[in-house]
User: Fold this.
Amino acid sequence: MIVCKDLIKIYKVDEENEVMALQGLDLEVEEGELMGIIGSSGSGKSTLLNMLGGLDRPTAGKCLVDGKDLLRLQTKELVSYKLETVGFVWQNNARNIIPYLTAIENVELPMLLKGRHKRERAKEFLELVGMGHRYNNKLTMLSGGEQQRVAIAIALANDPKLLLADEPTGSVDSKTADVVLGVFRELNRSLKKTIVIVSHDTELTKKLDRVVAIRDGKTSSEILRKTYVEEQ
Ligand code: ADP
Ligand code: ADP
Assistant:
């Protein structure tokens, strides 16, 4: 599903400075895998997910996702890749939920963007994440963990092959984290979704099929960060 080779991402900070957030990163993810990528803050986790999700472009290297070459896609192709192939779950739900709408309305929104409006399907996704009984509640009525489960249903709305989760349990307690993780496991098992979860939480990633580490290495130039992925 994912093959990245020598992936490089350089952010230009200003005229003189740049940050190399990914320096020659290699990563392979099989279709149907539930995998974790762990690393401390600043190691490049979000950058990697943003590349895989088509939110930003790598600077150099190779990155194929579901047969698409992310360095070569035209902007228009990248947008449809983002909408059709990937679903995102973040630590902070504020990025993708609308609190004054109900759970089901939130799940229907991304479907509308694609010209589809399927209440039944939205309800199925809410049931899959164990939120079917709360479909008609406004998001403001739900706990953090419940909102996170709705966020997962939103990510599923366009039935993407790949789910990318950035610290999905970062703002819930450990018991709720287990519930959220259980939801990912279930989606991986029953819907055969390929799932990549990045986190700094080593406890979380112990419960996944496979985990690789992304590390922040030191380089001679102070502002450069060397990052690599290795098998644990
Ligand atoms: P993590 O998610 O592991 O905390 P990030 O991918 O957010 O790491 O960041 C990796 C490095 O790249 C950090 O040094 C960060 O400051 C830098 N970085 C990330 N995004 C940008 C950006 N848009 N502009 C400049 N530097 C960035
Ligand atoms: P996380 O908690 O997942 O590591 P961050 O706070 O590092 O998230 O980053 C949140 C977003 O901001 C990411 O999309 C990341 O690429 C971007 N970002 C991180 N560091 C910088 C930076 N120094 N300048 C600009 N954008 C950044």
Notes: Confidence is low (pLDDT under 50) at residues 217-232.
